[in-house]
Amino acid sequence: MADRGTRYQGTTGAVTPDAAEPARLSIGALARAADIPVATLRTWERRYGYPVPERKPSGHRVYPLSMVPRLRRVAEALARGYRAAEVLSASDEELEDLLRTIPAAAAEISRGAADNSVPLRAVERFDGKALKGALTADWARLGPVDFLERTVSPLLHEVGEAWAEGRLDVAHEHFLSEHVGDLLRSLRLPFDERAQGPLVVLATLPDELHALGLQMAALILAMAGCRICNLGANVPVDQIVTHSKELNARAVAVSVSLARADRRTATHLGELRSRLPRKIILLAGGHGASTSRRGVDVMPDLETLHAWGSRLAQQAS
Of the four, 58, 96, 143, 316, which is 20 to 30 A from 113 by CA? Predict the structure, then answer.
């Protein structure tokens, strides 16, 4: 049994001598033995770093037979309502603790989240009309910030978890992302047309492919009166710097997802700060944003971002 501090995360493709684990399985055989779809195992490996394959001298990826009991326990915990991120990062001992506990919090909608059952069913059916109707109704009912934080963010998380757990396909996640992106752009348009405040350039750093955080930030900043130039996802640092200077931007805002909250992202953020002129403010937001970088203003939530944007626009008027 693993020590409580041991986490099941590691580098894909680690090499372990054959003598350590004499019985090894292909991913297909592992999936059959654990009764978990191959696509789900690959998603877990990509997102959470488990299961970690070994490589034979031929380069083929194989998995120790000893993983099977743990994977079955993982599947049991997921069936009880625990989140994939929580279960797959747990040690063996922590996993057993989870299975001995009734996951009341995992089975309920969080206190701050809206009831997303209607849009979730629309995603499951690929019903774009119903999805747009449900989201538009929540926008009108909740207001912009609550709509994004109580409806959109939890819905994206829930669909992402359902994909990771094999209950939905990647097509469902892409379907939701496309429809949410279209809606956020349409909601922002009238604010863009009226905005006369300072220009804010938005982008994600290299290797960061999640762009919906940018769309949310762009909407909030446009509502605050800022002009927006959204460069999109996965933008090289030198291009962010070059275009921000060319456009005489007052600020640069980058979105960092939890999946990219690593040392490389911190390095890119430090490089961006060092290469931008001091007069250009650098903001970082998203679940992966850290408060430890000097010269970077971290926006912990959208309400804080809106207040910041409003002050910036008022100072320029």
Answer: 96
